Amino acid sequence: MTSQTPTEQSLETLQDIKRMMERSSRFISLSGLSGVSAGVCALVGAWIAHGWIYLDTDDFVRTPYRDPSLLTNMLILAGAVLVASLATSTFFTWRKARRSKLPIWDLASKRLAINMAIPLAAGGFFVLGLLDHRGWQYVAPACLVFYGLALVNASKYTLTDIRYLGLLEIVLGCTNMYYPHQGLYFWAAGFGALHIVYGLIMWWKYERT
């Protein structure tokens, strides 16, 4: 067994202090599998919504204002996808926190939740305004942009990698503004595909071992 030099001991001590500071100031229990599960839920929801909007062919598109029941069904579906995503994400995050012997609800997680909630709440009211003014075709880009802003805003309280996911969501939402009638596909790409890719990368980077 080799003995450590004073310099090596000092470096190891500094690393321990750094890890302790990160644990106290950042919520590091986010699981990559949470992103994967949320992405799968989003893709399932998008597949169901596609069947409602595009009936027999992509040439015939239903809108909430041609068929009022569609808006109600879409809102219910969105709520179900949200609940399923939160439930599965919470489970995988709780499991990772338990394995790491870390609390799932502490000061860092509270800060994370607050900083995500502010842009998400603003986005929710913005989307309701769009629906009230019959701007349904801009709902998907608005969701992507505000969600991306929420991730960027919260990234300083968790793994910094989430910032890049937020930036990609913003870029996707801004691009969707120029193709408003393709919102469902952009929504599926942002909330579905990007989440799955991000989750797999995070799992491989932080949890594989």
Describe the secondary structure blueprint for this structure.
Blueprint: H1 6-25, H2 32-53, H3 68-100, H4 107-132, H5 139-154, H6 161-176, H7 183-207
Helix pairs in contact: 2-3, 2-7, 4-5, 5-6, 5-7, 6-7
What would you note in describing this structure?
The relative contact order is 0.15. Helix content is about 75%, strand content about 0%. The chain is built from seven helices and no strands. It has one domain (about 30-205). The model is unreliable at about 20-25 (pLDDT under 50). The two termini are about 25 Å apart.
Keywords:
single chain; mainly alpha; 0% strand; 7 helices
Percent of residues in beta strands: under 5%
Q: How many helical stretches?
A: 7
Structure classification: mainly alpha
For the secondary structure, the number of strands is: 0
Q: In total, how many domains does the architecture comprise?
A: 1
Measured distance between first and last alpha carbons: 25 Å
How is the biggest beta sheet arranged?
none
User: What number is the mean pLDDT?
Assistant: 82
Stretches where pLDDT is under 50 for at least 5 consecutive residues are 20-25
Percent of residues in helices comes to: over 70%
- Radius of gyration of CA atoms, rounded to a whole number: 20 Å
Name the shape in a single word: elongated
In a few lines, what is going on in this structure?
The protein is an all-alpha fold. The protein is built from 7 helices and no strands.
